[in-house]
Amino acid sequence: MTTEHIVSGYDQDLDRLENMIAEMGGLAEAQLADAIDALIHFDTEGAKKIVENDKRIDALETEIDTFTVNLIALRQPMANDLRVIITGLKISSNIERIGDYAKNIAKRTLTLGNTPAVGGSVNTIGRMAGIVGGMINTVLDAYAGRDADKADDVRLRDIEVDQIYSSLFRELLTYMMEDPHKISSCTHLLFIAKNLERAGDHVTNIAEQIHFMVHGSLPEDDRPKSDESVYTMVEPKT
Predict the structure, then answer these.
(1) What angle do CA 140, 200, 92 make, to 5 degrees?
(2) pTM, whole model, 2 decimals?
(3) Cα→Cα distances 10→15, 73, 74, 77, 230, Å
(4) Tens of pLDDT, residues 83-123
């Protein structure tokens, strides 16, 4: 086999890895959007499909794991190529977690059913999901284009998600204090919001890995965070 054929085959392997990650990311993005749509419209049948469809994302992660291990063993990549392969492996793991969060949201939607709305919380969750979905779309573009600047912009957007989550956390705690009958539904909504906040964190992980892939190092500045829910206390009314 000539050197040209070896290089050509190696490029095809790297293209295949990129295509699998793009497919996996697209599925996770769609799953998350569909999960929020099911929540907003009380679509229990749609929620059931999301839970079932998560298997495809899990299967792709397994396929990528096997493929990258074989690729490293057979091609023995160095320097930039090794970073590309390791980054792909880490990105697929983060995408799988985003898919899990979408599945968890769908499961809680099934539990909530057609329960009465709690203020504007579902709309706030929808706005939060819109930001996370946009982050996923942009970070996948950044990966495909090897665009570290675009990935860094996504990394900074996570603070918006944290701010909305912190605000919603306080709002739902207040509802629970005012009306104990809303504790169950508010608790599920809090978990849904937390799933979205964590999905945003995993998108940020992906953005940082893209920065590493391009520059050979992680971003030097601390990751911006604005989740104040851990410090939030709501005093009962007297």
Answers:
(1) 45
(2) 0.90
(3) 9, 13, 10, 10, 48
(4) 999 999 999 999 999 999 999 999 999 999 878 889 999 99
Average pLDDT, the chain: 91
Instruction: Tell me the three-class secondary structure of 159-216, residue by residue.
Output: HHHHHHHHHHHHHHHHHHHHCHHHHHHHHHHHHHHHHHHHHHHHHHHHHHHHHHHHHC
Q: What distance in Å separates the CA atoms of residue 34 and residue 110, rounded to the nearest whole number? A: 13
Give the C-alpha separation, 146 to 149, whole Å: 9
Q: What domains, with CATH codes, occur in the chain?
A: 3-231 (1.20.58.220)
How much is the pLDDT for 67?
A: 96
In eight-state DSSP terms, residue 235 is P
Distance, CA of 238 to chain centre: 41
Letter for the amino acid at 128? M
**pLDDT tier at 6, thresholds 50, 70, 90:** low
| Cα 31 to Cα 68: distance, rounded to the nearest angstrom | 25
- Return d(Cα 29, Cα 133) in angstroms, integer: 6
Enclosing H/E stretch for 45: helix 44-75
**Beta carbons of 142 and 87 less than 8 angstroms apart:** no
225 Cβ contact list (under 8 Å, min separation 6):
158, 159, 162
Cβ 130 vs Cβ 199: under 8 Å: no
